[in-house]
Design a protein that fits this description.
Rossmann fold, six-stranded mixed β-sheet, four-stranded parallel β-sheet, alpha/beta, globular, single chain, 451 residues, 17 helices, 39% helix
Length: 451
């Protein structure tokens, strides 16, 4: 374990250049935005980190990965010095999140895309079934530290959510014995996502006649007036945990970097988090380049795509329409500036997918052994388009980020395969075949399928 007292992290204004900024705050302070407006970022002392060479960091991270030594067996806390070096192990709230597998999408890559080197980072293979666990362990651990020092500083932790954030927040707060409050837009998330915070004991507020953006406005008002701690991704502590997925990808490729990373984009914090993780690896000499980023948005909630197509001139939020990719049904993303920085720095691309394209892409991939959430379907649909246009070459190494487990979205997947979705042809549907209880009927059904 590194015991270097020089290692530290602090909040600074996003885009302020870091280093000499006069506006800087301890991670122990309850603060979310800069005095002049805009988001804060977590800045690490890169000079102190660089005191240890790349070989040291690789050996340290590789030696911790997947072990049982608390908290270093976690995929997040195995990189503790790059996440929150000042927190004590006793304050960490972890469920050994991360360490998610890279699925080699061999058959889908070869048959649909003509590719040999397609991978899916299964971030949904986590405790609550989504990548949000990576950020929530970092945030709730810091809240745990703050509350131990001053119980009155934080009375509860709250978030607006389209499902996955609320599940992660509720689980980690429950593990630490911290009250949690979640704001959910009524009738806009899956039943599986709704029941998770209920089961973990959160105060669940189902807000009527609004969407995620409306819930976000409410939670910002509540946290401005009460000691409820804001857990949405405008709080940059979350991104420190999420960036470890990028480090983990490099680790899984023996410290090589993919050519492309395709990410579903909603509130867009994860886009910047992946950028931060890859950049730290490069800046500290563990890797020698950055991947190109592709942000994939649902056409029904595509403010970043429109901004990109307009040359990043005059950003306008949109009223997000209903999409099966409910977790990215966001029309006014908090991290828009962060995402644009990441895209510009990596010569990135933004693509969109219709409802039919995203559901078909998920179904096609499922038939080669995956079980994708609709958001992964958005990313796969974007990949298909860019591959068909030869923007992405068949020889490129591509990693698609799968953000949640498909079991959270059985309602929409069942509707797709039963052909019940209005205006969708459900090209790849595979409904169950009803047969009579006799050998002949069964054999007829088998012959029909196998002929």
């Amino acid at each position: 374990m590194v015991t270097d007292s020089r290692l530290h992290a602090r909040f600074v204004p996003f885009g302020g250049g870091g280093g000499g900024s006069e506006e800087a705050y301890s991670l122990d302070e309850v603060i979310y935005t800069a005095k002049a407006g805009g988001l804060l970022d977590v800045e690490h002392d890169m000079a102190a980190l660089a005191h240890y060479d790349a070989k040291y960091w690789k050996a340290l991270f590789d030696g911790r990965a997947g072990g049982t030594d608390f908290p270093f067996g976690s995929g997040v806390w195995s990189k503790k010095e790059w996440v929150n070096p000042g927190i004590s192990n006793e304050d960490v709230v972890s469920m050994f999140e991360g360490n998610s597998n890279l699925f080699w999408a061999e058959r889908f890559g070869k048959e649909r895309l003509g590719m040999q080197d397609l991978w899916v980072k299964q971030c949904g293979n986590s405790h609550t079934g989504s990548f949000k666990d990576l950020g929530m362990t970092a945030l709730v651990s810091q809240v745990n530290r703050i509350r131990k020092r001053d119980p009155s500083a934080v009375s509860a932790v709250g978030c607006a959510s389209t499902g996955d954030t609320s599940a992660a927040l509720s689980a980690y707060c429950a593990a630490a014995g911290i009250p949690s409050i979640v704001f959910l837009p009524a009738d806009k998330i899956s039943l599986a996502q709704l029941v998770q915070p209920i089961a973990n004991g959160s105060l669940v507020l189902s807000i009527q006649d609004t969407d995620f953006d409306g819930c976000m406005q409410l939670i910002k008002e509540v946290t401005a007036e009460t000691p409820v701690y804001l857990a949405n991704s405008m709080n940059s502590l979350r991104l420190e945990g999420q960036k470890t997925a990028a480090v983990e990808i490099c680790q899984q490729f023996d410290w090589d970097v993919p050519d492309w990373l395709v990410i579903p984009g909603g509130n867009l914090g994860n886009v910047y988090a992946f950028y931060k993780g890859f950049k730290m690896c490069m800046d500290l000499g563990l890797t020698d380049r950055m991947p190109r980023l592709v942000v994939a948005q649902a056409q029904n909630a595509n403010p970043l795509y429109r901004f990109y197509k307009n040359g990043y001139e005059n950003f306008e939020s949109v009223k997000a329409a209903t999409t099966f990719a409910s977790a990215i049904q966001i029309g006014d993303p908090v991290s828009i500036d962060r995402a644009v920085l990441a895209l510009k720095a990596t010569d990135g691309i933004v693509e969109e997918a219709t409802e039919e394209e995203l559901m078909d892409a998920a179904a096609q991939a499922d038939q080669t052994g995956m079980f994708n959430c609709p958001h992964t379907g958005v990313a796969l649909a974007a990949l298909i388009k860019l591959r068909d246009q030869d923007v992405i070459s068949k020889s490129d190494r591509v990693v698609v980020v799968s953000t949640a487990h498909g079991l959270k979205f059985t309602q929409s997947k069942t509707a797709y395969h039963s052909g019940e979705i209005e205006k969708l042809s459900s090209t790849y549907k595979n409904p169950p075949v009803v047969v009579k209880e006799n050998f002949g009927s069964v054999m007829d059904a088998i012959r029909d399928r196998l002929v």
